[in-house]
Amino acid sequence: MTAEPTLNVSIKNDIIRVLLIEDDEDDYMLTKALVSARENANIKLDWVDSYERGLEALEQNDHDVYLIDYRLGHHTGIHLIQEAFRLGCRAPMILLTGQDDLTVDQSALELGAADYLVKGRIDAQLLGRSIRYALRQASVLAEVAEKENKYRSLFERSIDAIFVADEQLRFQDANPSVERLLGYSRDELRKLKPARLFTELDFLRELRFNVREHGQIKDFETTLISKSGRKRICLISVWAVEDRAGLPEWYQGIVRDITDQKRAQQDLILAEKLTMTGKIARSIAHEVRNPLTNLSLALEQLKDELEMDNEYVTMFTDIIGRNVDRIGQLITEMLNSSKPRELERRRQDFNDVVKATLQFISDRIKLKRMRLDVHYSTDDCSALIDKEQVKTALVNILVNAVEAMEEGKGMLTVKTGCTEDSRVYVEVADNGGGITEADRKRLFDPFFTGKSGGMGLGLTATQNIINGHKGSIEVDSLVGHGTTFRLYFPK
């Protein structure tokens, strides 16, 4: 951030250095006489007689106060004040004119002139008081500007996302951390409707209500959507800044991104659940596999003793054999879903991995007379992944999506892409019945399933594979409209 030029308001030995910019020598002599009065003994007056010399002197910025005549040849004192500010001179300037003109007065003050004096009405006391007042005022403004620069620097450089808003929580100002978090520039944020940042409008309404009702709210947790569509879990704190009457004048707030913290907590919870699942699976495997092996051997022995030409004998032995195999398969699935995945990561085109995975479910989609809409990213989607493991994770998602949709009416949409933070993703959307919020929170829990006959380990295995890649998974669902899964993998 560029700092504002500091004011040159130094007074050595109480001497006030004043420069008169006046093209009329008689007016200079009159001004000199006023300055020479006893009450103005600490004022030292210098003089230049043209606009050009005045501009050179202003550029040098060697005086404490400038007295500027309104008429300076082809130019005016207004023009000189404008040019002085453009050059970075912030010393106080007093405009002198031969007549009382309200328009000139307003123009001078709006441009930053410290005072406006009418020639012929000035006495030594008035001139001295105006000079000293202008100097004190400039000193106060310099102090205010210094503090403002300091706090503006803190605002701009803060790693926390800090913003200023009106009563509707529309942005009035925001620091660069807000811009980085949300992906919008400061100007875009000022024009943005706050509702576009929230996943649900009710969250914004709740935030506004609490701020208006209590004057503040601390650590309000919600999910914000960046310009690129990326969702971030954030804590928002907002408090009112009151005017002299004690009424809210504007609001300031801080946004903290806790997405990674939340993800780490979820990963820890999942790891604990997988550890417990693994213990259960190993216990079941130990207790069940031995008798299951004996049952399988006994069945083979029994087949040798029975008349296998008998239709009923064959049917029942086949039923026993299939269920023995099914139990063994379920035990294997339990063990595989909970143990850490050993990845063989190689850099490859993520689009190719998704294409190969879709081949596994293409027949199922055709048999159920469903439509498949695929959009592959044209960006470089190469990533360091274990192809077979990613295919396994994605198949679980695709199969669930197909089974969630109605035969003959299903529409499966698959899209790949790259994010701004060097990740690739695949989005799988169905138009099935959707998932309730309560079920959505339990989707990846071991043994949780909404399907009859399922073990509820498919999504647990998917989550395990994604965690092994240091990736993440997002789920959006609306009951009666469908569900969308997004699987993210770092490049």
Automatic annotation (TrEMBL):
Residues 147-189 form the PAS domain. It comes from the Bacteria. It catalyses: ATP + protein L-histidine = ADP + protein N-phospho-L-histidine. The keyword Metal-binding does not apply. Gene3D superfamilies: 1.10.287.130, 3.40.50.2300, Histidine kinase-like ATPase, C-terminal domain, PAS domain. Residues 17-134 form the Response regulatory domain. One of its GO terms (biological process) is regulation of DNA-templated transcription. The keyword Phosphoprotein applies. PROSITE patterns: HIS_KIN (PS50109), PAC (PS50113), PAS (PS50112), RESPONSE_REGULATORY (PS50110). GO terms for molecular function: ATP binding; phosphorelay sensor kinase activity. Keywords: ATP-binding, Kinase, Nucleotide-binding, Phosphoprotein, Transferase, Two-component regulatory system. Residues 283-491 form the Histidine kinase domain. Pfam families: HATPase_c, HisKA, PAS, Response_reg. Its EC number is 2.7.13.3. Residues 218-270 form the PAC domain. The modification 4-aspartylphosphate is found at D69. NCBIfam families: sensory_box. PANTHER family: C4-DICARBOXYLATE TRANSPORT SENSOR PROTEIN DCTB, SENSOR HISTIDINE KINASE. This is histidine kinase.
